[in-house]
Amino acid sequence: MSRPRRVVLGTSALAAGAMASLVCLALALAFQNGGNWFLPTFLATLIWGAVPAMVLAFCLGAPLGILLQPVRNQWLHVAAFGGLGVLIGLGLGALGSRPWSSSDPTYLLSAALVAGGSLAIGRLAVWRLVRVDPEGRQSHLSA
Q1: Which of 55, 73, 135, 138 is a good FRET partner for 7, with 20 to 30 A between their CA atoms?
Q2: First and final CA of the chain: distance in angstroms?
Q3: Per-residue exposure over 113-130, b if at least 16 CB sit within 10 Å of its own CB, e if not
């Protein structure tokens, strides 16, 4: 009886995906501010967002990746990470909203779509780094 094949992604690929997601988020926020604030917004998001991006990647992204190991369809992985980003965006949007804007659905929707799109693009960025483990062994997150 053959074991199911597993999709394996190492910690270096997880970090690369988190950084790609952070760059996408920084670009989205910088384009939103635009003008003279583009570069300062972009750089501030990269600098202040690096540690939270890594924490979220290893606390939420790694468990999701482990849960998705038996799933070989990479598009389902991209959709799952996009969905995780939507949930993170809704949560952070609700936390960061002012009392008068928390009921504004466009604010929460834009936060959810930007975060979801960033995580989906981050997962797409590491598509080629995925390997399929033919023996279906449970592997540890490794480089």
Answers
A1: 55
A2: 29
A3: bbbbbbbbbbbbbbeeeb
